[in-house]
Amino acid sequence: MNPSIWLKRLFLSFILISSFAFADIPATVNINTADAATLAEVLSGIGEVRAQEIVKWRSTHGNFTSIEQLAEVKGVGARVIEKNRERIVLQ
Asked: Signal peptide location in the record (predicted)?
């Protein structure tokens, strides 16, 4: 086998394996500082409208003190909170 082809295959295999290794690591987002675009990008089940509601709630009530407080935001329920619990940080 040609060494050049072998190296290409080895490199491609490494890239493929590496992508699977990092696929399960969710990004985190600070719900007390993130803008709506970031919230919508990182949180599953949160689109632009709900993300804007989170920012609106935060500007009215102050910082979130618990993840469960997200349930007070219009359109955010327990299922969405549980789906994103590992992605959400408060500080």
From this structure: 1-23
Give the pTM.
0.72
Q: What is the pLDDT of residues 19-45, one digit of tens each?
A: 555 555 568 999 999 999 999 999 999
Distance CA 90, CA 9 (A): 43
What range defines the domain where residue 66 resides? 29-89
Phi, psi of 7 (to 5 degrees): -65, -40
The answer to whether position 54 is within a domain reads yes
Distance CA 53, CA 4 (A): 54
* Domains contained in the chain, number: 1
3-class DSSP state of 88 = strand
Q: Which two tokens stand for residue 26?
A: 């969710």
Cα(11)–Cα(5) distance, integer angstroms? 10
